[in-house]
From TrEMBL:
PROSITE patterns linked: ABC_TRANSPORTER_1, ABC_TRANSPORTER_2
Annotated keywords: ATP-binding, Nucleotide-binding, Transport
Chain segments annotated as transmembrane: none
Protein name: ABC transporter, ATP-binding protein
Tree of life domain: Bacteria
MF-aspect GO terms: ATP binding; ATP hydrolysis activity
Length: 339
């Protein structure tokens, strides 16, 4: 990064800052069986689990940042502390200048949370009814409310769905309404947890386009947790990888993937029945007379594709990057330093 870029970063407002942030839980454990249950009545044993371990973090206003890592890495615990749902065990935390766990109304009006597996919509109401309810909850001025509804409805093209019951909407349509609801009060920070989970490819693209627009046009700081590589790679300029509650990578998303994506996944669909011979170095995942799926080293993929096109009658070819899980696993193995 150049000196000019460093100066620009320093001029940005820091909206999220933590220092040695730690969250520990005490969990009761007992020996198995009836005897273990009886012993636990007199001698209860507890173990301490560290969900977030001495984490330092700074996020600037307007950043689109990914939090990635396996289940149990500490991502959700971190988001819960940033939103005030739980209190840290130790360390310093500041979000928009507030200590989140005080749950001050002035703080709660400045962020929003959207979770792909949990809904804030009322299924028996229409989206417009839910919007009106949130307008009252957040005391949104009428002109701001109308401007935001018109703006977000236009981006998503959902004007024809505003007066139908939420329970009749598809999953993709509901997620669009979830995002509109979350953004009605113009939050400064939006926390997203798997916003595209379960959606088809078209709905995922619409959600990504919407979030990119909100980040760029509204200047909303967005913190995304996702296991979908395309979400992270297409939206987030910065990625933070967490493992065992510790931050093991914090930097440029493209550099992260370029360093650790070492394979390409190639899917071939044949025009006629073929006996496919896997090239040297390939790992076959699936094979039939009409289809072949295999992994090859990234640096060999271009040359191999040229030879395959010349040898086989192909109806379609799909080339995909390593999945996010494989990338993150390699980061853990390498100790978190991008090559």
């Amino acid at each position: 990064m150049s000196a000019g870029q460093n100066n620009t970063e320093q001029q940005k407002t820091i909206v999220v800052e933590t220092e040695k942030l730690t969250k520990e839980y005490r969990r009761f454990e007992k020996e198995p069986g009836l005897l273990g249950s009886v012993k636990s009545l007199f001698n209860r044993k507890f173990v301490t689990k560290t969900a977030v371990d001495s984490l330092d973090l700074k996020i600037s206003q307007g950043e689109f940042t990914a939090l990635i890592g396996p289940n149990g890495a500490g991502k959700t615990t971190l988001v819960k502390m940033l939103t005030g749902i739980i209190a840290p065990s130790s360390g310093r935390i500041s979000v928009l200048g507030y200590y989140p766990n005080k749950l001050e109304n002035a703080f709660k009006r400045q962020y929003a949370v959207v979770m792909g597996q949990k809904s804030q919509l009322f299924f028996e109401l229409t989206p417009l009814d839910t919007f009106a309810l949130f307008r009252e909850l957040y005391n949104i001025p009428p002109d701001v409310y109308k401007r935001n509804v018109d703006y977000f409805v236009d981006i998503f093209g959902v004007s024809g769905l505003l007066n139908v019951q939420v329970r009749t909407l598809s999953l993709g349509e509901r997620m669009k309404m979830e995002l509109i609801t979350a953004l009605l009060h113009s939050p400064q920070i939006l926390f997203l947890d798997e916003p595209t989970i379960g959606l088809d490819a078209a709905a995922q693209r619409q959600i990504r386009t919407f979030l990119r627009e909100v980040n760029r046009e509204q200047g909303t700081t967005i913190i995304l947790t996702s296991h979908y590589m395309e979400d992270v790679r297409s939206l987030c300029g910065r990625s933070i990888v967490i493992s065992g509650g510790r931050k093991i990578y914090d930097g440029d998303t493209e550099r992260l993937f370029a360093s650790y994506q070492i394979h390409k996944k190639i899917t071939l669909l044949f025009e006629t029945e073929c006996t496919f011979a896997a090239p040297p170095g390939a790992v076959v995942i699936e094979q039939s007379p009409w289809k072949a799926v295999f992994m090859v080293p990234k640096e060999q993929s271009g040359e191999l594709l040229q030879s395959i096109i010349a040898l086989y009658p192909l109806r379609d070819i799909t080339v995909e990057e390593d999945d996010l899980g494989g990338v993150v696993e390699r980061i853990y193995t390498a100790g978190g330093e991008a090559r």
